[in-house]
Amino acid sequence: MHELSIAESIIDIVLDSAKSNSAGKVIKVTVVVGNCSGVVPESLRYCFDVIKRETAADDAELVVTEVSAMAHCESCGGDFKVGQYDYVCPKCGDIIMPTGGRELHISEMEIE
Amino acid sequence: MSKIVRLEKKILEKNDEVAARLRKKFNGLGLKVINIMSSPGAGKTTLLEETIKRISNRVSLGIIVGDLATDLDAARMERAGCAAVVQINSGGRCHLEAAMVEKAYEEVKGKLDILIIENIGNLVCPAGFDLGEDERVMVAALTEGLDKPKKYPGMYRQCGHLVINKIDLAQVLNIDPEQFEHEALTVNPKLRVFKTSAANGNGLGEWCGWLESMVKG
Lengths: 112, 217
Hints:
heterodimer, A: about 25% helix, B: alpha/beta, Rossmann fold, 9 helices, about 25% strand
């Protein structure tokens, strides 16, 4: 359940930024989460809703944009999107190592 | 009137900053740091006890050990002969963070060659947090079963080294350690694999040899 730590970090960054932008209220926060980052979007939303209470982000909606890891197969040369649990090439069945998919960042927020 | 503020900030930037600071400090001291991760009960502490007994007369070893609660592990490693052990209690957190290591390191006594960080037993969460280490080692016990590499690929892919422990139980479990290695290499072909029994000492020579080579290198 490290989503709690992740949610705390999101709220820290958002509140800092809201303050420096003289915002009274945070309306929406958009985060990018890779499908191999080990973060479960549903758990993250749940934790975010707990951590945001009684802050300027009390009513903020968390939008999670999921991005996929990619893999290049050395054997057949194919490039394709992969899930966290994929380990073989869908075309030729050789073993592949995903690249990317570990993204974990806040892209933007809406304030007023 | 609402407005959009572009942030493009890493969510774990604070942890990454502390980890980078630690890595710089450790490099400056010539200290090699290893982050050991596993599921609960894989045998990390027993492996470390046996490692301490074998190399602490030649290598100055420090250990930071993370647990949800209790200082049982730290006491075991002190009894095994490690003079520099610090226990972190995460108070329920499922992983260690760089700031916890930074604080614990202040309590580590003496000049060290190797610092081992024994992470919280968990196959998911610790993989996401950089602790300023040089190497990530995963310990997997044969008792976990052959399906685990494919069920927890994130952890297997985030480590450069794998210790397959409890190989003395291969016959009872009817699991071939070679097959476990094959399963692990299927999710991460780059892993360097050690096969050990911390209980009877098999394979510990190669594991300890690798640790000692880090200091010489």
